Amino acid sequence: MASRPGFPARIDLGPAPATPRGARAGAPVREGTIPGGVGLESSAIRHRMVMKLAAQGVSDPKLLEAMATVERHRFVDSALVNQAYEDTSLPIGLGQTISKPNVVARMIELLLGGRRDSNGRLGRVLEIGTGCGYQAAVLSRLCTEVYSIERLRGLHDKARDNLRPFRLANVHLLFGDGMAGFAKGAPYAGIIAAAGGESVPQAWMDQLAIGGRIVAPTQTANGQQALVVLERTQHELKQTVLEAVHFVPLKSGIA
Ligand code: SAH
C-alpha cells in the first residue's frame, strides 16, 4: 500500500494512548475536549470515542481502527473543535451537517457487509454527499477507491481543502448531482448516501456490482426516514429497512 503522509501507520486499539504531548502526566483529559494547542495529540479522545462505538455495537476492527485514526476535529470549524468527538452531528456550513460518529460507523459497517477482497477491503465505493470530507477519509482506509460527489460547490471546495493535508491518493472528489451516480466509476462494491431521498435513485442500482450494497437514508411508507440497505445478488436486489434516521435532504441539481 502506498504510504500516506499525515496518517499514523498503525493504531493500537488496546490500552489508551500515552498522555498527549504537553499535557501533565496523569492529568485527566476532559470528556469531549481536545487538548489545546498546536501539535498536541487528540488520539486519547478518539480512542475513547472508539471505545464508546464498540460498546454501542460497532465491531469491525478495521472500521474501529479507521475511526480511531481519522482526525475528525480537522473537518469542523475551529469554534466546534471541542465537540468534534462527541456523539453529535455538527454544522459544516451551507445548512448541511456532518453525521454523528455513531451513525457514520453504523452505515459504513452495513456497507462493509458486502463483498471484500483478500485484504478485507471493499472495492470501489461511491459516496453521495461529500460534505466536509470526513466520511470520505474514513472510507479511504477501508476501500480501494472512493468516489465522493457533492452538489454544493462551497462544500466540494471545503472538502478538498480539508483533505489536502492527508494526501489520500484513492479519494476522488467530484462536483455534481449525485442523484445520477457516477457512471464512469461503476460498477461499485458499495454506494453510501449521506443525504436522504424519497426513494433510492435507479442510477445507483444500475451502478451497483453484484455482491455490492447500497446504504441510504430513504423515506419509508409512513413518511419517516429510515436506513435502507439494498444488496445486489445474481438475480435480485434485496431490500432491508432498518432504524429511523434524520439526514439532510437529497436534492437534485448543483448549486
Ligand atoms: N459525508 C458528509 C456528510 C455530508 S451532509 C461528511 O462526512 O461531512 C450531506 C451532503 O449531501 C450535503 O453536503 C449535501 O449538499 C449533499 N447532497 C445532497 N444531495 C446531493 C446530491 N444529489 N448530490 C451530491 N450531494 C448531495
From TrEMBL:
CDD domains: AdoMet_MTases. It is found in: Cytoplasm. Keywords: Cytoplasm, Methyltransferase, S-adenosyl-L-methionine, Transferase. Residues 14-32 have a biased composition (Low complexity). It is an enzyme of class 2 (transferase). GO terms for molecular function: protein-L-isoaspartate (D-aspartate) O-methyltransferase activity. It holds the Pfam family PCMT. Its EC number is 2.1.1.77. This is Protein-L-isoaspartate O-methyltransferase. PANTHER family: PROTEIN-L-ISOASPARTATE O-METHYLTRANSFERASE, PROTEIN-L-ISOASPARTATE(D-ASPARTATE) O-METHYLTRANSFERASE. One of its GO terms (biological process) is methylation. Belongs to the methyltransferase superfamily. L-isoaspartyl/D-aspartyl protein methyltransferase family. Residues 1-33 are annotated as: Disordered.
